[in-house]
Amino acid sequence: MRVGGLRRDWGRRLVLAVPYLWLLVFFLAPLLIVGKISFSESRIGIPPYEPLLDWAEEGFAIIRATLQNYVLLFQDDLYVEAYVQSLTIAGISTLLCLLIGYPMALGIARAPEKSRGPLLLLVIVPFWTSFLIRVYSWMTILRDEGVLNHALMGLGLIDEPLVILNTDWAVYIGIVYSYLPFMVLPLYATLEKLDPTLLEAAADLGAKPIRAFWSVTLPLSLPGIVAGSLLVFVPAVGEYVIPNLLGGGDTQMLGKALWDVFAQTRDWPSAAALAVAMLVALVIPIALFQRIQTRMEEEGER
Amino acid sequence: MRRSSSLITAMAFGYAFLYAPIVLLMVYSFNASREVSVWGGFSTKWYAELLDNDAYLNAAWLSLKIAATSATGALVLGTLAALVLVRFGRFSGRLLFNGLITAPLVMPEVILGLAMLLLFVALEDLIGWPDGRGFTTIAIAHTTIGMAYATVVVRSRLAQMDDSLEEAAMDLGARPAKVFFLITLPVIAPSLVAAWLLAFTLSLDDVVVAQFVSGPGSTTLPIEVFSSVRLGVSPQVNALGTIIVVVVAVIIGLATWLASRKKR
Q1: Closest Cα to residue A50, out of A59, A62, A37, A60?
Q2: Calpha distance A78→B21 (Å, rounded)
């Protein structure tokens, strides 16, 4: 610390305290409350849960915690099914996203330097326009009498309309479409930094482009693959809008189940338990993402 | 470096996949027929209906107010957080701070929404604030999410910034606050604009968190759109989407033009 002494110290503390307090009150505290209420008994009333701590007449504190919400969660096939389906759908969508996103990121990274910026911008632009309305657009494309089926039947490729809307396929398409920019950006960031002389060296040593890709490009872009996959996978597990609009009656995902329990059954403790169960599945991916993110940021700050 | 034709094909497919729904949306917003797959001639009637729809207009006004408020809050908090992370070095509690600021980026929206709602209910029970749910609660929730994104944008700009200017000013005796407003702020200004716009867009786009923390009489535009879209085809939504795409394209075009002019 240089000049300024006390005064500077107070300024420093203020700069730190304001965002820190905001995050503690409006982000950490809410998550802790979710944890707390997941152990409360449900009741009919406002709010629809029993207090965890009660004061008895003699001044004793009575703790009324219950594991029942979690037990019910595991006993109800609907939730177990939603849990499994959410992870499966998110996993498959992430893989598809990687398959479409990787060539795009590679292509942009290998494009002439002048056109990289515009190409990258074209990937980001859709993200700035309404997500909800773009998903709605897929409803009109994928319907039985929608644009896609009309085109395919007009070309004579199929005789009967393909049923895509309200199936898991529509959900995959919706998730891949909505999250593709999140996959391409971190991939591009690692691929762009890749030293081209490494590939030249591989070629000089007689490696075919395919071989050079598998043994040089792919391993070196691993941080981008992991970061991009997590940016798609984690939010996709809790996705609510896409399964709602594009999925069918048998597409059960945790996000939808959570909202239904919360809004229709008004069983807040069960909704909270569902949120905690979802977080348990996601805590490792989230921590992994934070480690990669921090490492990337700190490399930039050096 | 050589680019194989298969790579170019894959890229073309990717871009077509990204833009086809947007182009179709715009084309069908001018379709006179209600049936999406049938072309019934050119018409602007869905735009007229949209501008006559009070529910949409009121919701849009509320959404714009919430987005402007929360983007401004997110920008201030995000800039402070970025300063802390880039310029403060090690301090106790940095690990927690870093965790709290990056977690909202990947946290599923349903969890964020439920958590926020439970906080507001508990707070109201405890201190009587916030009184009911609506503008304030949605704006606070959106500020918290937007803050995480604003921090990422401002942080990477601050990290790239050459801090010798700041050090020179400090050596000449300028106070940290003065250095920040006279030197740091003008240098990082473009990233501040980008961060504000990002937070603004996220707020304007959010349906899930808003659905949890909104109350009766505070229907935002995405909530309104979501409820009409769930029921099936609604050509007014095509018109609304087209307007949004055009506005976004104009803003991005302007920003790119300004940036390229500045470089020269």
Answers
A1: A37
A2: 33
pLDDT digits (tens, 9 = 90+) for A242-253: 999 998 878 889
Task: Identify the CATH homologous superfamily for domain B58-232.
Answer: MetI-like (1.10.3720.10)
Residue ranges of A 186-225 with Cβ closer than 8 A to chain B: 196, 199, 209
CA B58 → CA B51, B201, B213, B231, distances in Å? 11, 18, 18, 21
Q: Which CATH architecture has domain A69-301?
A: Orthogonal Bundle (1.10)
The domain segmentation of chain B, as residue ranges, is: 58-232
Tokens matching residue A215: 């043994």
pLDDT in tens, A107-121: 999 888 888 988 998
Confidence of residue A51 (pLDDT cuts 50, 70, 90): low
Of the candidates A49, A16, A7, the residue with the CA atom closest to the CA atom of residue A273: A49
- Give ipTM to 2 decimals: 0.90
The answer to whether A245 contacts B229, with C-beta atoms less than 8 Å apart, is yes
Residue boundaries of the structural domains of chain A:
69-301
The C-alpha of A235 sits at a distance from chain B's nearest C-alpha, in angstroms, of 5
Provide the chain A residues 79-138 that lie in CB contact (below 8 A) with chain B.
100-101, 103-104, 106-108, 110-111, 121-123, 125-126, 128-134, 136-138
pLDDT of residue A70: 84
Chain B: residue nearest A20 by CA? B97
Which candidate, B248, B200, B170, B250, places its Cα nearest to that of B66? B200
Structure tokens at B201: 């867009």
The residue ranking higher by pLDDT, A1 or A216, is: A216
pLDDT at A202: 86
